[in-house]
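Model it.
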Amino acid sequence: MSFSERLDAVAKRFDEIEAELAHPSGEFDQARFTALVKERSSLEETVQTYREYRKLLETTAANQSLLEDRSDPEMHALAEEEAQALAVRRKDLEDRLQALMIPKDPNDEKDVFIEIRAGAGGDEASIFAGDLARMYMRFAEALGMRVEIMSISESDSGGYKEIVFAVKGQAPYRYFKHESGVHRVQRVPVTEAQGRVHTSTATVAVLPQVDDDDKDVQINQKDLQIDTYKSSGAGGQHVKKTESAIRITHLPSGTVVSCSEERSQLQNRERAMQMLRSILAEAKRREAEEALGTMRRSQVGTGDRSEKIRTYNFPQDRITDHRINQNFGNIRAVLDGDLGHIVDELRKDERARLLAGETSAA
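Modeled.
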């Protein structure tokens, strides 16, 4: 099916929905009505843009006849000027239609869990994990998102062996989904007396949150081992005196999640269950994986220095994203949360790949 044929099909479906909403048949079905309204809304911008484009083509054809008539030099000059403006407008509408027809990621609007673990490199790796956590939190807050810590395992060096936090509001998955993988840092550690550059890694997993009523995720309570323990994290004496922290093990997959940052054991349990559902849902979507417990390894690799999606080279003040083969400067600003320009390039690359896939399938 050609691109124009696909657009014709979308417009036809839009008209069918309009007709059914205007003249429903049989008894009123609230669920179907809601589904139709939602589908109509998803198609409306594309159809309106397509109709504007079709009208522009008609205007262009009419103007072409004026261009071909050279009997009136003044009218011919006006027609040439109009042709240039129409060509610019046509290119703009074609670009918009291509973008609108790219398949949308159903998870883009979802909140996320971000899990960061220190990889190879000892203390320096845990410090780098802390750097990444701060970068993501500041970037999220700059976009108006909310950050909620779930669990922290601190290292003696002041970084994190592991940190898990939730990011909510303003479509977090859309902005963070490309961060999953191994991040590598090359710099001189504070503890390095000889001034030698060390290479360390940290792994990042970004998981879209799953609704409690998601039918794709069925968790049998008999499959869960739930342990309580005293938190050693932030929270003061209250947290340390009561076993409010929760650790949940999903026995069939071996997946372990924990939450210790809330004072209430019930709250910690609810948030841990949210993360467990997200992990299991993501694993189910990755049908190629041999077992549910391998899902996060597929995202973050083993943490070995040779596996990487992005390198932060401090001596050269250069960040290299290896997936798009682009370099970015000013590491300090990026680690302080100025991540937007890198995210924009990754999203642009995603759109280009999706469009190429759609074009080749057409």
